[in-house]
Amino acid sequence: MAGDYYRYMCEIAAGEKLSQVKDEAKRHYEEASLIEMPSCSPVKLGLALNFSVFYYEVLNDRYQAC
Predict the structure, then answer these.
(1) How far apart are alpha carbons 5 and 64 in whole angstroms?
(2) Average pLDDT, whole number, for the chain?
């Protein structure tokens, strides 16, 4: 949820603040990805989808998003 919060903040942030919230979103998504969950867990699948959206929409990294 923290990653999503910072991803939403990226929509309105600018300049140095945008860079900070991008870093925070990525850090939280990566940290959450390390939590052990079954591969078919709805929470894990939702996290993967939201992390993918972050890469696609915020970082404009289409390759990593896939």
Answers:
(1) 20
(2) 95
